[in-house]
Amino acid sequence: MEWRFMAVVVLLSAQQSASQRTALYPSAYRIRRGTYSLVNPTFQSSMTEVNLLFEALLAGLQIAGGPGRSLLIPDEELASLRSLQRLEAVCEGVLPKRLSEVRRLTAALARRRTPLSGQDFERTVLTMVYAIQVMADVSAPHQREVWADALLQLFRAVHQDLT
């Protein structure tokens, strides 16, 4: 009887640790041909890059969902900075762009019981920026409502991580 209980405990803990190891952003670990490829790319590794991201957002940074350049910055001088290539790699290759991918992410975030890593936090905030931009461009009320729900779920995950 006791060995059965121990077997159940071991199986449950193995299942829980396997679910915690699954990546929130699986595309971060794939290398794409023809891109500024980094395995598990992140942008913010210093305060300078945090300030640069803030400046890019203030300048009107747009994360495009289609193929081609995924990062549009109206300020040409700011857009020409080499350090923004990593941000473009994150936005192009890692962030979920389809609603189904964003909803998969929000479901995984809702199940998560541990704090987000710095990389996942950065990607979740950038996904929120993308969702806000898509929601602003969508004209169909139903689509706008669905994107708003996804945005709310992303906000809840970030808020939960911060508290």
Task: Explain this structure.
The chain has helices at residues 2-21, 47-58, 76-79, 84-93, 99-111, 118-137, 141-162; strands at residues 62-63, 71-72. The protein is mostly helical. The chain has one domain. Strands 1-2 form a two-stranded antiparallel sheet. Helix 5 (99-111) packs parallel to helix 7 (141-162) and helix 6 packs antiparallel against helix 7 (141-162). The longest helix has 22 residues, at 141-162.
Task: Give a quick rundown of the structure.
By secondary structure, the chain is mostly helical. It has helices at 2-21, 47-58, 76-79, 84-93, 99-111, 118-137, 141-162; strands spanning 62-63, 71-72. It has one domain.
Largest sheet: 2 strands, antiparallel
How are the strands ordered across the major sheet? 1-2
Radius of gyration from the alpha-carbon trace, in angstroms: 18 Å
> Average pLDDT across residues?
78
Query: Roughly how much helix do the residues carry, as a percent range?
Result: 55-70%
Summing up helix and strand content along with how strands pair, one would put the structural category as mainly alpha
% residues in beta strands: under 5%
Instruction: Give me the number of helical elements.
Output: 7
Tell how many strands the DSSP assignment holds.
Answer: 2
Give unreliable regions as ranges.
3-21
Overall geometry: globular
- The topology string of helices and strands comes to HHEEHHHHH
First and last CA, distance: 42 Å
Q: Estimate nothing, just give the exact number of structural domains.
A: 1
